[in-house]
Design brief:
The protein is an alpha+beta fold. Helices cover about 30% and strands about 30% of the residues. It folds into 2 domains: about 140 residues, Fructose-1,6-Bisphosphatase, Chain A, domain 1, CATH 3.30.540; about 100 residues, D-Maltodextrin-Binding Protein, domain 2 (3-Layer(aba) Sandwich), CATH 3.40.190.80. The protein has 7 helices and 14 strands. Its EC number is 3.1.3.7.
Length: about 260
Amino acid sequence: MLNMDILQLLPIAKAAGAAILKIYHDPNQSNVVDYKADDSPLTLADQAANEVIVAALRKNFPETHIISEEGKDIPYEVRSKWETFFLVDPLDGTKEFIKRNGQFTVNIALIENGKPVMGVVYTPVTDTMYYGQAGKGAFKQVGDAPAEALKVNQKAENRIAVRSASHASHEEEEVLNKYGVTDEMSVGSSLKFCMVAEGKADLYYRHGPTMEWDTAAGQAVVLAAGARMYIGNTEETEFTYNKENLLNPGFLVLGF
Protein backbone atom coordinates (compact mmCIF):
# COMPACT_ATOMS: atom_id res chain seq x y z
CA MET A 1 0.00 0.00 0.00
CA LEU A 2 1.13 3.55 -0.66
CA ASN A 3 3.02 4.83 2.37
CA MET A 4 0.26 7.01 3.74
CA ASP A 5 -2.42 7.06 6.39
CA ILE A 6 -6.11 7.70 5.82
CA LEU A 7 -5.93 10.64 8.23
CA GLN A 8 -3.88 12.52 5.64
CA LEU A 9 -6.97 12.66 3.40
CA LEU A 10 -9.36 14.13 5.97
CA PRO A 11 -8.21 17.77 5.82
CA ILE A 12 -8.21 17.57 2.02
CA ALA A 13 -11.85 16.47 1.99
CA LYS A 14 -12.75 19.19 4.50
CA ALA A 15 -11.08 21.89 2.41
CA ALA A 16 -13.02 20.70 -0.65
CA GLY A 17 -16.21 20.77 1.38
CA ALA A 18 -15.54 24.36 2.42
CA ALA A 19 -15.12 25.32 -1.24
CA ILE A 20 -18.48 23.72 -2.04
CA LEU A 21 -20.27 25.41 0.85
CA LYS A 22 -19.01 28.81 -0.20
CA ILE A 23 -20.99 28.41 -3.42
CA TYR A 24 -23.88 26.45 -1.87
CA HIS A 25 -24.60 29.22 0.65
CA ASP A 26 -23.94 32.14 -1.70
CA PRO A 27 -27.23 34.10 -1.97
CA ASN A 28 -26.27 35.05 -5.52
CA GLN A 29 -26.27 31.35 -6.41
CA SER A 30 -29.58 30.49 -4.75
CA ASN A 31 -31.36 29.34 -7.92
CA VAL A 32 -29.49 26.07 -8.39
CA VAL A 33 -30.06 24.61 -11.83
CA ASP A 34 -30.82 20.94 -12.41
CA TYR A 35 -28.16 20.30 -15.00
CA LYS A 36 -24.40 20.70 -14.99
CA ALA A 37 -24.59 23.56 -17.45
CA ASP A 38 -21.58 25.78 -17.94
CA ASP A 39 -21.15 28.23 -15.08
CA SER A 40 -24.05 26.80 -13.10
CA PRO A 41 -23.62 26.83 -9.30
CA LEU A 42 -23.36 23.05 -9.37
CA THR A 43 -20.65 23.05 -12.00
CA LEU A 44 -18.78 25.78 -10.16
CA ALA A 45 -18.96 23.79 -6.91
CA ASP A 46 -17.72 20.65 -8.68
CA GLN A 47 -14.80 22.49 -10.19
CA ALA A 48 -13.88 24.35 -7.02
CA ALA A 49 -13.80 21.15 -4.97
CA ASN A 50 -11.89 19.30 -7.67
CA GLU A 51 -9.20 21.99 -7.82
CA VAL A 52 -8.71 21.81 -4.06
CA ILE A 53 -8.47 18.01 -4.01
CA VAL A 54 -6.22 17.59 -7.03
CA ALA A 55 -3.82 20.33 -5.90
CA ALA A 56 -3.52 18.79 -2.42
CA LEU A 57 -3.06 15.24 -3.69
CA ARG A 58 -0.40 16.33 -6.17
CA LYS A 59 1.44 18.26 -3.48
CA ASN A 60 1.37 15.48 -0.89
CA PHE A 61 1.55 12.42 -3.15
CA PRO A 62 3.22 13.66 -6.34
CA GLU A 63 3.97 10.19 -7.73
CA THR A 64 0.38 8.87 -7.42
CA HIS A 65 -1.98 9.21 -10.38
CA ILE A 66 -5.47 10.70 -10.10
CA ILE A 67 -8.74 9.92 -11.85
CA SER A 68 -11.60 12.29 -11.05
CA GLU A 69 -15.02 13.05 -12.43
CA GLU A 70 -13.71 16.42 -13.54
CA GLY A 71 -10.66 14.87 -15.23
CA LYS A 72 -11.93 11.56 -16.50
CA ASP A 73 -10.68 11.57 -20.10
CA ILE A 74 -7.49 9.62 -19.50
CA PRO A 75 -7.03 6.94 -22.20
CA TYR A 76 -7.42 3.38 -20.97
CA GLU A 77 -4.12 2.50 -22.64
CA VAL A 78 -2.49 4.86 -20.14
CA ARG A 79 -4.38 4.21 -16.92
CA SER A 80 -4.58 0.43 -17.38
CA LYS A 81 -0.92 0.36 -16.35
CA TRP A 82 -1.63 2.16 -13.09
CA GLU A 83 -1.44 -0.17 -10.08
CA THR A 84 -2.15 2.64 -7.61
CA PHE A 85 -4.18 5.81 -8.08
CA PHE A 86 -6.63 8.14 -6.39
CA LEU A 87 -10.24 8.02 -7.58
CA VAL A 88 -12.11 11.22 -6.79
CA ASP A 89 -15.65 12.53 -6.97
CA PRO A 90 -15.41 16.15 -5.81
CA LEU A 91 -19.18 16.47 -5.40
CA ASP A 92 -21.29 13.32 -5.25
CA GLY A 93 -25.04 13.77 -5.13
CA THR A 94 -26.07 16.08 -7.94
CA LYS A 95 -29.78 15.83 -7.19
CA GLU A 96 -29.19 16.29 -3.48
CA PHE A 97 -27.24 19.47 -4.16
CA ILE A 98 -30.08 20.73 -6.35
CA LYS A 99 -32.72 19.86 -3.76
CA ARG A 100 -30.58 21.55 -1.11
CA ASN A 101 -31.15 18.69 1.33
CA GLY A 102 -27.50 18.57 2.39
CA GLN A 103 -27.01 14.92 1.41
CA PHE A 104 -24.13 15.42 -0.98
CA THR A 105 -20.56 14.36 -0.32
CA VAL A 106 -16.89 14.73 -1.17
CA ASN A 107 -15.40 11.34 -2.12
CA ILE A 108 -11.70 10.46 -2.19
CA ALA A 109 -10.49 6.87 -2.57
CA LEU A 110 -7.16 5.15 -3.06
CA ILE A 111 -7.24 2.20 -5.47
CA GLU A 112 -4.57 -0.50 -5.46
CA ASN A 113 -4.65 -3.32 -8.00
CA GLY A 114 -8.31 -2.64 -8.72
CA LYS A 115 -9.47 -2.56 -5.10
CA PRO A 116 -10.35 0.44 -2.90
CA VAL A 117 -7.98 0.21 0.06
CA MET A 118 -8.90 3.50 1.70
CA GLY A 119 -11.62 6.07 1.29
CA VAL A 120 -13.15 9.23 2.70
CA VAL A 121 -16.79 10.29 2.38
CA TYR A 122 -17.35 13.79 3.75
CA THR A 123 -20.69 15.58 4.15
CA PRO A 124 -19.92 19.32 4.22
CA VAL A 125 -23.34 20.54 5.41
CA THR A 126 -23.23 18.46 8.61
CA ASP A 127 -19.42 18.36 8.92
CA THR A 128 -19.59 14.56 9.10
CA MET A 129 -16.62 12.46 8.00
CA TYR A 130 -16.74 8.75 7.25
CA TYR A 131 -13.43 7.09 6.50
CA GLY A 132 -11.99 3.62 6.26
CA GLN A 133 -8.72 1.87 5.51
CA ALA A 134 -8.15 -1.81 4.79
CA GLY A 135 -6.79 -3.52 7.88
CA LYS A 136 -7.37 -0.48 10.10
CA GLY A 137 -11.15 -0.25 10.27
CA ALA A 138 -13.81 2.34 9.53
CA PHE A 139 -14.71 5.46 11.50
CA LYS A 140 -17.18 8.32 11.73
CA GLN A 141 -16.35 11.78 13.03
CA VAL A 142 -18.79 14.66 13.45
CA GLY A 143 -17.15 18.06 13.71
CA ASP A 144 -14.30 18.03 16.22
CA ALA A 145 -15.78 15.22 18.30
CA PRO A 146 -13.71 12.04 18.77
CA ALA A 147 -13.99 9.55 15.93
CA GLU A 148 -16.18 6.50 16.52
CA ALA A 149 -15.35 3.06 15.13
CA LEU A 150 -17.91 1.62 12.72
CA LYS A 151 -18.98 -1.99 12.36
CA VAL A 152 -21.68 -3.60 10.23
CA ASN A 153 -24.69 -5.16 11.91
CA GLN A 154 -24.42 -8.85 10.92
CA LYS A 155 -28.19 -9.14 11.35
CA ALA A 156 -29.71 -12.48 10.41
CA GLU A 157 -33.32 -11.24 10.16
CA ASN A 158 -35.47 -8.10 10.05
CA ARG A 159 -32.92 -6.53 7.77
CA ILE A 160 -33.03 -2.89 6.68
CA ALA A 161 -32.18 -1.82 3.15
CA VAL A 162 -30.87 1.62 2.27
CA ARG A 163 -32.21 2.98 -0.99
CA SER A 164 -31.52 5.98 -3.11
CA ALA A 165 -33.39 9.18 -2.42
CA SER A 166 -33.35 9.88 -6.16
CA HIS A 167 -33.26 6.48 -7.93
CA ALA A 168 -35.28 3.27 -7.61
CA SER A 169 -35.94 0.17 -9.68
CA HIS A 170 -38.21 -2.86 -9.85
CA GLU A 171 -35.15 -5.09 -9.68
CA GLU A 172 -34.45 -3.75 -6.20
CA GLU A 173 -37.66 -5.26 -4.89
CA GLU A 174 -36.63 -8.75 -5.94
CA VAL A 175 -33.27 -8.46 -4.22
CA LEU A 176 -34.77 -7.05 -1.03
CA ASN A 177 -37.26 -9.91 -0.86
CA LYS A 178 -34.49 -12.44 -1.47
CA TYR A 179 -32.57 -11.23 1.58
CA GLY A 180 -35.53 -10.87 3.91
CA VAL A 181 -35.60 -7.11 4.10
CA THR A 182 -38.45 -5.91 6.30
CA ASP A 183 -37.75 -2.18 6.42
CA GLU A 184 -35.96 0.46 4.41
CA MET A 185 -34.46 3.91 4.65
CA SER A 186 -33.65 6.48 2.00
CA VAL A 187 -30.61 8.70 1.68
CA GLY A 188 -28.66 10.33 -1.11
CA SER A 189 -25.15 10.07 -2.56
CA SER A 190 -22.42 7.83 -1.09
CA LEU A 191 -24.06 8.10 2.31
CA LYS A 192 -25.88 4.85 1.44
CA PHE A 193 -22.60 2.96 1.85
CA CYS A 194 -22.03 4.76 5.13
CA MET A 195 -25.41 3.72 6.50
CA VAL A 196 -24.41 0.08 6.05
CA ALA A 197 -20.97 0.76 7.52
CA GLU A 198 -22.41 2.20 10.72
CA GLY A 199 -25.09 -0.46 11.07
CA LYS A 200 -28.12 1.70 10.37
CA ALA A 201 -28.82 -0.44 7.29
CA ASP A 202 -27.87 -3.99 6.37
CA LEU A 203 -28.07 -4.04 2.58
CA TYR A 204 -27.66 -1.70 -0.36
CA TYR A 205 -28.49 -2.81 -3.89
CA ARG A 206 -28.12 -0.59 -6.91
CA HIS A 207 -29.39 -1.78 -10.28
CA GLY A 208 -28.96 1.44 -12.24
CA PRO A 209 -25.70 2.84 -13.60
CA THR A 210 -23.08 4.68 -11.60
CA MET A 211 -19.52 5.70 -12.39
CA GLU A 212 -16.40 4.38 -10.68
CA TRP A 213 -15.81 7.64 -8.79
CA ASP A 214 -19.36 7.43 -7.41
CA THR A 215 -18.69 4.22 -5.49
CA ALA A 216 -14.98 3.84 -4.69
CA ALA A 217 -14.75 5.85 -1.47
CA GLY A 218 -18.03 4.49 -0.13
CA GLN A 219 -16.93 0.95 -0.89
CA ALA A 220 -13.63 1.49 0.92
CA VAL A 221 -15.50 2.66 4.02
CA VAL A 222 -18.06 -0.12 4.05
CA LEU A 223 -15.50 -2.86 3.39
CA ALA A 224 -13.33 -1.55 6.23
CA ALA A 225 -16.41 -1.82 8.47
CA GLY A 226 -16.78 -5.51 7.60
CA ALA A 227 -19.18 -5.54 4.65
CA ARG A 228 -18.91 -7.25 1.26
CA MET A 229 -19.62 -5.82 -2.18
CA TYR A 230 -20.36 -7.73 -5.38
CA ILE A 231 -21.13 -7.11 -9.02
CA GLY A 232 -24.81 -7.57 -9.90
CA ASN A 233 -27.27 -9.16 -7.49
CA THR A 234 -25.41 -12.36 -6.54
CA GLU A 235 -22.51 -13.09 -4.20
CA GLU A 236 -20.17 -14.25 -6.93
CA THR A 237 -17.81 -11.56 -8.23
CA GLU A 238 -16.11 -8.89 -6.13
CA PHE A 239 -16.51 -5.30 -7.30
CA THR A 240 -13.30 -3.83 -8.73
CA TYR A 241 -12.02 -0.67 -10.47
CA ASN A 242 -10.10 0.77 -13.43
CA LYS A 243 -12.19 -0.99 -16.05
CA GLU A 244 -11.86 0.03 -19.69
CA ASN A 245 -15.32 1.57 -19.38
CA LEU A 246 -15.58 3.59 -16.16
CA LEU A 247 -19.34 2.99 -16.10
CA ASN A 248 -20.18 0.62 -13.26
CA PRO A 249 -22.46 -2.39 -13.47
CA GLY A 250 -25.12 -2.90 -10.79
CA PHE A 251 -23.85 -3.92 -7.37
CA LEU A 252 -24.82 -5.45 -4.06
CA VAL A 253 -23.49 -4.42 -0.64
CA LEU A 254 -24.12 -6.82 2.25
CA GLY A 255 -23.39 -6.02 5.87
CA PHE A 256 -23.96 -9.59 7.03
